[in-house]
Amino acid sequence: MAQTMPEIRRIVEAYIRNLVSLGVPVQKVFVFGSYAHGDATDESDIDIAVVSPKFEKMSLWDKAGYLGKAAWGMPLPIDALGYGPTQLKKVRPGTLLAEIVKNGIEIR
């Protein structure tokens, strides 16, 4: 059985705490994908977008390192994308980030 949104929020908040403990200040977090659309299944992961000033000029490889390390030990798989605040301010229509901002659920 897929998790409820309150359960997903608790898991995402724990994930945020992990990021902060790794030295990543978190400004915003959006849940998107199947949990945001309400059609998650038992096989669904949690899709999230994390906005942090630390990600502003960081390489994709380095972002993936922080985002992946923070997901260790989580009760459900987390698929996270990292963005800098400038990317959020200058979001372009038709991009994945535009879709996330429009239809995602802001957790923080």
UniProtKB/TrEMBL annotation:
CDD domains: NT_KNTase_like. One of its GO terms (molecular function) is nucleotidyltransferase activity. The lineage of its organism: Bacteria, Pseudomonadati, Thermodesulfobacteriota, Desulfuromonadia, Geobacterales. SUPFAM superfamilies: Nucleotidyltransferase. It holds the Pfam family NTP_transf_2. Coiled coil: none annotated. It comes from Geobacter metallireducens. It comes from the Bacteria. PANTHER family: NUCLEOTIDYLTRANSFERASE, POLYMERASE BETA NUCLEOTIDYLTRANSFERASE DOMAIN-CONTAINING PROTEIN. The keyword DNA damage does not apply. This is Nucleotidyltransferase domain-containing protein. Keywords: Transferase. Residues 23-92 form the Polymerase nucleotidyl transferase domain.
